[in-house]
Specification:
Layout: H1 4-38, H2 41-77, H3 81-108, H4 110-117, H5 124-152, H6 157-181, H7 187-208, H8 224-263, H9 265-301, H10 305-332, H11 335-338, H12 349-360, H13 363-378, H14 382-408, H15 411-438, E1 442-443, E2 448-449, E3 456-461, H16 467-478, H17 483-499, E4 506-512, E5 516-523, H18 527-536, E6 542-547, E7 550-558
Antiparallel strand pairs: 1-2, 3-4, 4-5, 5-7, 6-7
Helix pairs in contact: 1-2, 1-5, 1-6, 1-9, 2-3, 2-5, 2-8, 2-9, 3-5, 3-8, 5-6, 5-7, 6-7, 8-9, 8-13, 8-14, 9-10, 9-12, 9-13, 10-12, 10-13, 12-15, 13-14, 13-15, 14-15
Length: 560
């Protein structure tokens, strides 16, 4: 047994996932640094005031990008291309319509919106200046974010990466030019983002004309009624991950009010640095989590817990190690980050350093809870995902802040975040135990199905004459598989190896259900080989599809 294909596919998808997670985060981090350097702390406070609006973009990326992606991939795994294209079309159309509606509301009710955000009088001019191009940028960044989610899992992860890299490089370069060289003021920072992602949006047009893409627009088949119902389905799947963004909007807004009342602009500046610190580590964490949410639906639907266990454990280990290292850096030397935002020489620098130290304790439980949220979303366990999301991103920090504020003052804000994340993990673990007692087909925090582990075999074949292949056929014979089925399987395997080069390998999953045996074959070989197999073995029990850029064959053998 080995995990060669899933490991390679995970690595292939990981970099684009990290870059997509980085997309808006990098813009926010560099905007904050450049604004603090060239505009001042009133400008930085304005960015924190607008943070709830900026977070809306992440909400839609997760809601329609991940929600639509999961349903589309599930349909692909079920060999339903029309269903996959339907959810892709619905996700993109809904993203465009809603993001355009929001930009219209932002411009039409700008003064009312700013009043709700409650900036101080000295900060309002900066909020209006930055908001001018931010509002125009909203639909562009949102559409790019959602579309690159689909491009990433459609066999073009490098192209998705390239779009995000280009947009961010342009944004950072123009940030410096507009603020440091041309002295355009704070609006220059938001204009840089608009131009960067405008170029990125133009680049995505290449995907529309790519004959190799497997996600296609089917607007002609989309009716109003099915569009609405399918949008609701996507929202149901995407809302656990997206709810993190929704709750972040609410939480940041409330914390802004508390800190502004207690410490004025200093409180907003401290919180801005803390949020940016979280964004830095969350780039990696969200990258792993989103990659999991792409891979998990395929392997979980096929009951391949051997590969799932491997990739989930690896993701948790790497993200937690990185979170520990980053936390250690901030605990030992918080000035390493504060210098970037020009807060290392503030009059109350001790208050700033301690706030960042305490807040950094949330990074490790944040990594674990985020992996849980996206894993549960991938296996469509919305209740469990919702529990972690609502407690970690909203209720936990708010409850602990209000309970501890009479005793700790403003320090309760910083400690409430790590406590909120820990509480979410404890509560969902308790809930999962209750589910296990009611439904004994599952066990563990990741809902592994009992009984199937013992009935599952996973084989990796390097060539058609390997000893592993002989071992696999002996196992099938022990399951009383008839000669005709064994011969068909052997022909499929030989056809794949004969039509590809020597580097191709096959990952074969065999599951013995009570009434049938399911054999799933994955490889990263030539696409045309699958079409030949589909023509040659045109049987009801042989299905072929392309999922996540690899070939997927399902061969079902009925017992009896």
């Amino acid at each position: 047994m080995s995990n060669e294909i899933i490991t390679h596919k995970f690595r292939e998808l990981l970099l684009p996932s990290i870059l997509i997670a980085m997309a808006l985060n990098i813009a926010i981090i560099f905007d904050s640094s450049f604004v603090a350097t060239f505009i001042g702390h009133n400008g930085q406070a304005a960015l924190q005031v607008l943070e709830p609006l900026v977070l809306l973009i992440t909400i839609f990326e997760w809601l329609f990008g991940l929600g639509g992606q999961i349903l589309s991939l599930n349909k692909k795994a079920e060999f339903d291309e029309d269903g996959s294209n339907h959810y892709f079309t619905t996700a993109m159309l809904t993203t465009i319509v809603i993001s355009l509606l929001i930009i219209f509301i932002c411009f039409l009710f700008e003064d009312a919106l700013i009043a709700i955000l409650h900036p101080s009088a000295s900060v309002i001019p900066y909020v209006k200046s930055y908001g001018l191009y931010l509002f125009i940028c909203f639909p562009i960044v949102t559409v790019v974010g959602v579309l690159t989610q689909f491009i990433r899992v459609d066999g073009q992860p490098n192209f998705a990466s390239g779009i995000i890299i280009l947009a961010n490089v342009i944004n950072v370069v123009l940030d410096y030019l507009f603020l440091a060289v041309f002295h355009m003021g704070i609006e220059g920072a938001s204009l840089a983002t608009l131009i960067g992602y405008g170029v990125g949006f133009i680049c995505t047009l290449k995907y529309y004309f790519d004959s190799k893409r497997t996600f296609r627009f089917v607007l002609s088949k989309l009716k109003i009624k099915t569009w609405i119902s399918s949008t609701v389905e996507i929202i149901k799947i995407g809302i656990p991950g997206a709810s993190m963004g929704v709750f972040d909007v609410i939480l940041v807004y409330i914390m802004n009010l508390i800190l502004s009342a207690a410490l004025g602009e200093l409180g907003l500046n401290i919180f801005n640095v803390c949020v940016n610190a979280l964004l830095i580590i969350s780039i990696l964490v969200i990258g792993f989590a989103e990659t999991l949410s792409s891979v998990v639906p395929i392997y979980y639907s096929q009951n391949d817990f051997f590969n799932l266990n491997h990739i989930v454990r690896k993701s948790l280990l790497i993200t937690i190690i990185c979170a520990v290292l980053f936390t250690s850096i901030l605990l030992i030397c918080p000035d390493s980050l504060l210098m970037f935002f020009k807060l290392n020489q503030m009059p109350n620098d001790g208050l700033v350093e301690n706030a960042l130290r305490v807040y950094s304790l949330s990074f490790v439980p944040m990594a674990f809870s985020t992996i849980l949220i996206f894993y549960y979303e991938g296996i469509e366990r919305t209740v469990e995902s919702g529990i972690v999301s609502v407690i970690s991103s909203l209720l936990g920090p708010l409850v602990f802040t209000f309970i501890l504020y009479p005793f700790m003052g403003v320090g309760s804000v910083w400690i409430s975040f790590p406590l909120g994340y820990v509480l979410s993990i404890l509560v969902v673990a308790f809930y999962v135990r209750i589910v296990e007692r009611k439904d004994n087909q599952y066990f563990g925090l990741f809902f592994v199905k009992k009984g199937l582990i013992e009935k599952t075999r996973n084989y990796t074949l390097k060539n058609k004459n390997s000893d592993v292949k002989n071992e696999m056929f002996k196992h099938l014979e022990s399951l009383n598989v008839n000669e005709n089925s064994l011969e068909t399987l052997n022909k499929i395997i030989n056809a794949i190896f004969d039509s590809n080069d020597s580097t191709v390998s096959l990952e074969i999953l065999i599951i013995d259900y009570d009434d049938n045996i399911t054999i799933n074959i994955k490889d990263e070989g030539k696409r045309e080989v699958m079409r030949n197999i589909e023509k040659t073995f045109s049987q009801d029990n042989v299905k072929v599809s392309e999922v996540l850029g690899f070939n997927n064959i399902e061969f079902t053998i009925n017992k009896g």
